[in-house]
Amino acid sequence: MSLTGPALLHITGTTRLYLVVGDPIRQIRSTELFNRLAAEGGHDAVFVPLQLPSEQLKAAVPVLRSCPNLAGIIATIPHKPALLNLVDQASEQARLVGAVNAIRRDSDGRWIGEIFDGEGYLNGLLDCGVEPAGKSALVVGTGGAGCAVAVSLARRGVNRLCLVDTDDDKVESLVRRLRSAFPSLDIRRGSSDPSGFDIVTNATPLGMRATDPLPLDADKLTAGQVVADMIMAPPVTPLLSQARATCCTVVEGHKALLGQAMAISRFFGMEPARS
Amino acid sequence: MSLTGPALLHITGTTRLYLVVGDPIRQIRSTELFNRLAAEGGHDAVFVPLQLPSEQLKAAVPVLRSCPNLAGIIATIPHKPALLNLVDQASEQARLVGAVNAIRRDSDGRWIGEIFDGEGYLNGLLDCGVEPAGKSALVVGTGGAGCAVAVSLARRGVNRLCLVDTDDDKVESLVRRLRSAFPSLDIRRGSSDPSGFDIVTNATPLGMRATDPLPLDADKLTAGQVVADMIMAPPVTPLLSQARATCCTVVEGHKALLGQAMAISRFFGMEPARS
């Protein structure tokens, strides 16, 4: 299935509404994918972006909760952490990451939160033939994306996990939370030197702009390492370009999209039609 | 153009969002028409129903105002009167009717309200070859629909306008407002006897259910009178059925839909592609 393109939609008073809330939102394209998954699966649902400023989130939640046809929310930047505290129930994984990116309204009206960023990333690895279980992994960046990646790698069973961030507090806090949740796993702070890691992941924004410095010492990459980037656009970042030239296995950020969208659709109770 | 059916929609972060707010909303089909008008006109816009309980309207307005991609609102029952007082500017017509059914966000962020129920009704008459100017008219029911019909008939230049309602206060209030706005027009309370009127309009809900009594003395209709019904479903109400049997000109409620939708689309800055 292609990730973009229009969907043939019947939008009426019976349609379940899913809002994709963020600020800014102009970059959002995932609604096309969600709408096509819904339409092709025969579901009476529509996904629509809503640009909601952060300072309005708290006021928006009771209003949105009162709307019976609002069946769910997909949260993007900057609302993922704040929404964790505004749902009625969140998974252990979401609490560990400290964020939700999908909220479902259950039949009793309760809001159930989950985070799928890590699952999307894992699907991207697996699609490229990479199984993280038993491997060593370096994650650069411990913001929202980095937390989700680190938690998913820990859950999947890597044998060594190193985390890097220029923000001492953020990386120390994540190391602490992960050690508490995965006491038998070797988790520590790392450096920007990727030497010796099976899987190296960039979870910083560095690489979105052509003028960005590289997020890690790409000169120290060696053939056979796996290098993943969480950046969606450009699809091939300077890091991935150099990794490919070094004969690393490269996992582009957009590889996460389809798998994550299908997982979120299932979370919303929509079984996707596989094409 | 058919009034229902799916539309091929690209919904992304640049799409202008129009919410159709009401409670209940399950009966809403107009979003299909608006979405097709937008898609066929090449506009990056989507119309989506939102079921918003009345008690949340006041809390919802500041939240919705803060969302830059929310380009407008179409109000349905029960929000039309309350929204009149929540917009920054409303037309003289909307203030006279006491309601808005469309709100546009202008480039400076102000909310501009307008009422199109009367324009839809007038388009329906004109489409059936009926010109109200210079005619006499009886309007039964002075709720939201009846007010809009009465105001549109007065503005169009009927020479005599009679209003009927079982609620004395409502009908007296509308008569007073119309007399003040149209001092040269003969406006008074009427009865449910349609004798002698060129145009007879049902603006009550009577006729939606098969067991409803007729809204007026249909036995007194005579050939050549125009009988219009504001009820959309069923398309042919018992009143219209009896009027047709009496060789009256019949104007079905749904005749208002396409004209009103095109007028609202233009109000939203979308020039519809005429097919």
From TrEMBL, chains A, B:
PANTHER family to which the protein is assigned, alphabetical: BIFUNCTIONAL 3-DEHYDROQUINATE DEHYDRATASE_SHIKIMATE DEHYDROGENASE, CHLOROPLASTIC (PTHR21089:SF1), SHIKIMATE DEHYDROGENASE (PTHR21089)
Taxonomic lineage: Bacteria, Pseudomonadati, Pseudomonadota, Gammaproteobacteria, Oceanospirillales
Protein name, per record: Shikimate dehydrogenase
Biological or metabolic pathway of the protein: Metabolic intermediate biosynthesis; chorismate biosynthesis; chorismate from D-erythrose 4-phosphate and phosphoenolpyruvate: step 4/7
Entry keyword Transport: no
Native source organism of the sequence: Marinobacterium nitratireducens
Keywords from the UniProt entry: Amino-acid biosynthesis, Aromatic amino acid biosynthesis, NADP, Oxidoreductase
Secretion signal span: none
Any Gene Ontology biological process: chorismate biosynthetic process
Residue span, Shikimate dehydrogenase substrate binding N-terminal domain: 20-103
Pfam families: Shikimate_dh_N
UniProt-recorded Gene Ontology molecular function terms: NADP binding; shikimate 3-dehydrogenase (NADP+) activity
InterPro entries: Aminoacid_DH-like_N_sf, NAD(P)-bd_dom_sf, Shikimate_DH-bd_N, Shikimate_DH_fam
